[in-house]
């Protein structure tokens, strides 16, 4: 069964600011979740991060309702500041 993907406001805002090739790269990586590459669970949070180049996609997985919630997308240095 496939997970449905929900974007939070911060993630949409970052995506809209990017150029088309970057948007495509991020969306392709997000669509491969939960089986993407370079994924780590964040210590102290019920959250995961996926690396896409120098950007990070932070997300949570809700297994019971089969939803992946994309919490935030940002550059490597900035993404963790808003946790």
Overview of the molecule:
The protein is an alpha+beta fold and 83 residues long. It has a single domain (4-76), classed as 2-Layer Sandwich (YaeB-like fold), CATH 3.30.2310. It has 2 helices and 5 strands; from the N terminus they run βααββββ. The protein has a 5-stranded mixed beta sheet.
Average pLDDT level: 94
Give the tally of structural domains: 1
For this structure, the CATH topology is YaeB-like fold
- Count of helical segments? 2
Number of E-type strands: 5
List keywords for this structure.
YaeB-like fold; single chain; 5 strands; about 25% helix; globular; about 80 residues; alpha+beta; five-stranded mixed β-sheet
How are the secondary structure elements laid out?
Elements: E1 4-7, H1 9-17, H2 20-31, E2 39-41, E3 48-52, E4 55-62, E5 67-75
Parallel strand pairs: 1-5
Antiparallel strand pairs: 2-3, 3-4, 4-5
Write a short abstract of this structure.
The chain has a 5-stranded mixed beta sheet. The chain starts with a strand and ends in an 8-residue tail after the last strand.
